[in-house]
Amino acid sequence: MSDTPEYEVTVVGGGPAGLTTALYTTRLGHDTAMINRGGGRAAMMLDTHNVIGVPEEVSGNEFLQTAREQIEEYGADYHQDFVSDIERREDGRFDVTAGNVEVVTEHVVLATGFSDVRPDPPLPRTGRGLHWCLHCDAYMFVDQPVFVMGVGESAAAVAMIMLNFTDEVSLLTRGDEPEWSEETQRQLDGHPVEVVHEEIESMEKGEDGWLESFTFADGTTREFRGGFPMYGSDYNTALAESLGAELNDDGTIAVDDHGQTSADGVFAVGDVTPGHNQIPTAMGEGARCGIQNHYDLRTFPMSVEELDEHGGSAPEGAAPGVSDRLRERAREHNANAAAPPVEEGEPEPADD
């Protein structure tokens, strides 16, 4: 008998989408492992925005750590490692290899995200003048001078969009030739966006670490509170491609409404799939994916064909359809949740 741990669901990647998937599959009674290399967009956040019920002062790392503690509390196994290989076995399950971690799993959920393409320095620190999410951070630039870096259609569009929040918007091409269309140029000409073509020579930061200004090659200095680099994204799809999952034209993994890819038993959620790159969006995707995994993997209700294989009725002892390990963990968790709190100084009730 192999000593390799076996799971029903293994989630690769530990951002909000992957963590939510693991939360749902674990609480729905499926042995779940998460293997997470660390990092990612959410981990870079100094503050959390647009997540209802979560105060802004909660950092991305704090947010993720709380979520990791939650899934482990419910019985998921968490591993900090990098998944280097996933291979489909003859029985349809998967061998997952990550450093010193090896698992066998029925389903794989890829929550591998993407990496933003960073422009060359000089650059301010992420969260202190360099921002990656327009929908998260535009609010903080109301009536503040803001920059957008890039030469493509998306950079021009974001520069014009920022006029909804401030009348001081500069589009920085940093010496590169614009790649946007003539129509987009006509739009820019009609909007109060300053297009600056000179390269950045240096920058100034305040005592609090926030960007204050850029000095350009022509000797001019412009003040900025912060801005957005628009140079595209590199999607982490190598594992999906190795398993035969189809990609979209933009490089994301093609999925249905529940995260199922074109490869049987392989799901994908979060920033590696199409859609808005937002924590609440990722959490919604994770919830739908977790529920779909439950539908696919749960023991009951058994089909008529399955019942016939067992003489017309469910095998004795098959219920509940949850592993002994998770069953025990759920009993412990629910007992602790139901226990009344003991006031400080008050003796605990004695056993009869």
Automatic annotation (TrEMBL):
GO terms of molecular function: oxidoreductase activity
Transmembrane segments: none
Keyword Flavoprotein: yes
UniProt xrefs under InterPro entries: FAD/NAD-bd_sf, FAD/NAD-binding_dom, Ferredoxin-NADP_redctase_2
UniProt keyword Oxidoreductase present: yes
Region (Disordered) residue spans: 307-352
Pfam family, one: Pyr_redox_2
Domain of life, source organism: Archaea
FAD/NAD(P)-binding domain mapped to chain residues: 7-286
Swiss-Prot/TrEMBL keywords: Flavoprotein, Oxidoreductase
Basic and acidic residues: compositionally biased ranges: 324-334
Biased segments, Acidic residues type: 343-352
Family annotation (Gene3D superfamilies): FAD/NAD(P)-binding domain
Name of the featured protein: NAD(P)/FAD-dependent oxidoreductase
